[in-house]
Amino acid sequence: MKFISATINGFGKWVDESFDFYNEGVNCLYGQNESGKSTLHLFILFMLFGMPPKQRNFYRPKTSGALGGRLTIEAKHTGRFTIERFDGVRNGSALCYTEDGSQYDEEWLTETLQGISYATYQSIFSFSANDLNDFRNMKEDDLGEVLLGIGLTGSTAIHSVEKMLENKISDLFKPYGKKPLINQELDQLALLHKEVRQSASEEKIYQNKNLESDKLSQDIRTMEEQAKQLYNERLEMERKQQALPVMKQYSELREKLGEFPNSLPFPEDGLTRYEKLKSEILPLRSELSFLVANEKTYENRITILQEQLPAEEKYNEAVQLLKLKDDYISFVREKENWQSQLNKLQNRFKMEINQLNIGISMEDVERLHLPFHTEKNWNQIKISSGDLEKESIQLQQEQKELTNQRMYTMNQIGELEDQLLDPHHVSKIKEKLRLSTENELIKRLSMQSAKKKIKWEEERKKKEKYASLGLWGSIIVALILGLVAMLADSSIFYVGTITFLIIGLLQRVLLHRYLDGMEKIIGMEEIQTTNIGIEDEERKEAENLLASYESTKKDIAALEETLKSIKLKLMKWNEKNKIHIDAYNVLEGRIKQQIDLYPFLLHVEIDYWPELYHNLKHIVTLSQEALETKENIKLLEEKKEKIQLELNQFSATENREWTQKNIQEQLRELELFTTDYNSNLDKIKQYRQQIRENTEQQLAVKEKLNPYETEIRQLYEVAQVDTEDSYYFKARQVQEKLELEKKKATLVRQLNNFFDDQEEKHNVDWQEEELASRAQQIKTEEIELQKNVEKERQELANIRAEILQMETSETHSYKLHQFEMKKDRLNELAKEWAVLKTAKEMLSETKRNYRDTYLSKVIQQTIYYFGFLTDGRYKSVHPPGVGQAFYVVTHDDIHFDVSELSKGTVDQLYISLRFAVSEVMSNEFKLPIIMDDAFIHFDTERAERISEIIKNIASKHQVLLFTCKKNVVEFFENENIIRL
C-alpha cells in the first residue's frame, strides 16, 4: 500500500494545501521547527483511523471552519482509492471513493487496512522523537523489559497494563499483609462474628415485642373498619334528608303529566317545519303575481314602438350616407395634417436659411445643384487640411526636441571626459590591489596550516599516551605470564611473555615512525607570507576609484551612440518637411476650384464645409416636400365638396331644415336617425324576449309551489287536523308535555346523585323525624369508637418505641446483618482479585506467545541494524531472560546492561529495534512507514548510516520521513523532497 497524495482543507496550521508523494522510495518532508511536520503526520493518521471529537477540536484551524481533507492511496487488491473525512460530516467517519466511482464506508476501510488499528500502526510503522522521550523517562531497572515490550507489542501500553494489574492485585490481597482490602475485610469479619454470638440472647425479647405489636395493629384495623361503616351509614341518612324537597317536586310533576293524553300525534319538529314551509311559499306566490303584471306591461310597450318606426328604405339610404362620415373625417384630419406640415416646412425652411448666414436666398436654393461627389470632395479637403495642420505642428516640435537633445548630449560628453582619471594612475591602482589580494589568500592558508598543526599536536599526545599504556600493559601482562610460568614451570607461558613484550615494543616503534612521518608532512605545509598589504580604507578607496573610472567610460560610449542617433533623426526630419510643403500646395489648388463652383464657400471655413453640405442638402429637400404638400391639400378639398352634395340631396327629401346645416351637423342628424331606428328595433326584440322568459319563470314558480303545498297537506294528515288554527293548538300541547318531561328528567338526575341511579327508591316515602333520630344515634356510636382507637394507638406507639430502641442498639439482628454484608463484600473482592489474577496470567501468556513467534526474527534484524549504526562495535543483542535483563555484547565480548549504555547508544538501539519490528511485521502488512524526526539527536555520521538503512527499507516499502535537519535532506537529494 502506498500514499499517492494528500489534500488538506483544514487541519491545524494547514488550510487548503496539497502534497504529492512518490510511489517508490523515500519522501523526505523538510521544514524548520513549527513548520507543521507533526501536524501533517497526525493528519495522515487522522485520515486513516479517525480521531475523537475533543482531539479533533484541538486541530480545528483558526482561519477556516472546515476540518478534514482527502488522502489518495494505492493498494494491491483494491487499486487506487481516496479517503474523505470531515468533522461534522457523518460524525467524522470516512467515505472512500474508488476509481470506478463506487463509495465505501469506514468498515470497508478497516478491512482494506487489514484490521490494523491506530495503536498498531503507531507501534509498527510510525514513530517519532516523542517515542524516544517516553522511552528515556522509564526507570533504569525496567528499561530492558520495556524496550522489548515496545518492540514486540507496539507501544508501552502492555507494560503499563501489566504494572496496573500487579498494583491492583497487591492492593486487594497479600498473604501476610494488613493494608490490602481483602486482609482488612477478613479482620473485620472475624470481629463481627464474635459480636453476633454475644447478642443472640437479646433476640427472644425482641421477638415477643414484635408479636404484641402485630396484635394491637390488627385490633386497630378492626375498629377502623367499624368506624368506616358507621360513617357511611351516617352519610346515607344525611343524603336522604337533603333529598326530601326534591322528592316532593318529583311527585307533583308526575300528577301534572297524568292530565295529558297518553298519545299526541304530531309530526317531528312539526311547528318549525310548518313555519319554514310558509316562509318558502309566500315569496313564490308574490313572485308569480309580479310576473303576470310584467307580461302585460311588455305587450303594451311593443305596440307603441311599432307605430314610431320609419320606412325601411329611408333607413337603408341613411346608412349608406353615414358610411361617408369616416371618409369625411379622414379627409378633414388629413388636410389639417398636410396644412400643419406645410406651415412647419415653410418655417423650418426660412429658419435654416437664416441660420446659415452665408448670403444665399430661397431662389438660390431652388436653383442649387449638389452632385453626390460634392460631399466626398469637401470631406477630403477638410481631412487633408486638418492633417497638414497637425503635421506642421508636429514637425516644428520634433525639430525643437532634436536640437535640444543634440546640445544636451554634447555637453554631457564633455563633462564626463573631464572627470576621467589618468590611465597611468589607473594601472598603478590595479597592480596594488592584485598584490594585496594574493597576500590575504596566503595569510588564510597559513592560519589553516597552524590549526592543523595544533590539532595534530593534540592527536600526537593522545597516540603517545595510548602507546605508553599499551607498552606498560604488555609489560604487566608479560610479567604476570612470567610469574605464572615460573610457578607452573610451563614453556607456553614463557612464549606468551616474550610475545607480549615483542608486541608492546613493536607498536611503540611503529608509532614513533608514524609520528615522525606526520611531522615532516605538516612541516612541509607551512607557507611563507609577505608583508605586502594595504589598509582596508585605502583598499576600498582604490576599488571605488576603479569602479568609477569604468562606469564613466561606459557612460561616454553610451552618449556617443545617442548623439549619432540624434543626427540620423534630423536628416529624416528634413525629408518629411519637404513632403509636407508639396502636399500643402496641392490642397490650395483644390480649395480654389470649389470656391469657383460655389462662391458662398468663400465665407465659410474649410472645417465646416461637410456640415454645410448636409445643411444645404436638407434645405433643398424641405423645398421639394413643401411643393408636394400643396398638391395633396388641393386633392382633399375636391373630395370634401363631393360628400357635401350627396348630403344636401338626402336632407331635401327627409327634412329640409337639415340643408341649412353644415356637413358635420348633417352627419350627426343622420346618426341620430339610424340610432333611434335601431334602438326601437332592439327594444321590441328585448320585450318579446322578456315575455318568453316571463312565461318560463311563471311555469318554474308554479313547479316550485307544488312540493311545498303537498308537504303542508302531509303535515295536516300526521297531526290529524284540517285547519291551520287546529294545527297550532296541537303544537302547543305537545310543547307543554315535553317541557314537563324535561323537568322530570332533571329531578331524576338530582335524585340519582343522592341514591346511585336507583330510580325505584324515588317512590319511597320517608319521614323526616325518623331520619334525624337515626343520624344522631350513629354519631354517638362514632365518638365512642374513636376514643377506643386512640387508646389502642397510644399503647401500640409505646411498644414500637421499645422495639425501635432495641433495633437502634447493637442487637443481634443488626450484627447479623452487618456480618452478612461483610461476607458479601468479601466475596465480591475475592471475585475481583481472581479476575485480575487471571487477566495478568493471560497477558503474560500472550506476551510469551508473541515473543516466541517473532522474537528470533526481530532480534536478528536488530543485531544487524545496531551493528551497522555503531560501526560494528556491538556484535549481538540479547533479550531479557530468567534473572537476566536486556543486554548487548561488544566485539571484545564485553557485556553491557541496557541501563549502563549512554543515551545516544540507547537511542540507536531503540531505532534499530523499531526498524527491525517494522521490517518483520511489514512482511504481513504492506503499509507505508512514517518517521517524524526520529533521529534528531544523532550526529552526522550516525544520521548518514540511518539514511542508508532507510533507503534500503524504501526499496521495499514507501517511506515518509519528516525532518528539520538540512544534513539529513542532503542524504536524500535524489529522492522526493517536499519543503514545508
Account of the protein in words:
With 980 residues, this protein is an alpha/beta fold. Among the domains are: 1-116 and 925-940 and 950-980, P-loop containing nucleotide triphosphate hydrolases (Rossmann fold); 270-313 and 664-734; 387-414 and 542-603, no CATH class; 423-534. The protein has 24 helices and 14 strands. The protein has helices at residues 37-49, 53-58, 106-112, 118-124, 129-136, 143-153, 157-172, 181-198, 203-257, 270-308, 312-356, 362-367, 372-419, 423-488, 491-524, 536-597, 609-654, 663-719, 724-755, 768-808, 812-869, 903-922, 940-954, 966-971, and strands at 2-10, 17-20, 26-30, 68-75, 79-86, 95-98, 103-104, 126-128, 874-878, 887-890, 895-897, 929-932, 959-963, 976-979. The strands form three sheets. The chain has a six-stranded antiparallel sheet with strand order 2-1-4-5-6-7. It has a five-stranded parallel sheet with strand order 8-12-13-3-14. Helix 7 (157-172) packs antiparallel against helix 21 (812-869), helix 8 runs antiparallel to helix 21 (812-869) and helix 9 (203-257) packs antiparallel against helix 20. It is flat, with a radius of gyration of 67 Å. Mean pLDDT is 78; it is low at 136-156. This is YhaN AAA domain-containing protein. It comes from Virgibacillus halodenitrificans. The chain crosses the membrane at residues 466-486, 492-511. Residues 206-240, 328-355, 542-576, 619-656, 775-809 form a coiled coil. Keywords: Coiled coil, Membrane, Transmembrane, Transmembrane helix.
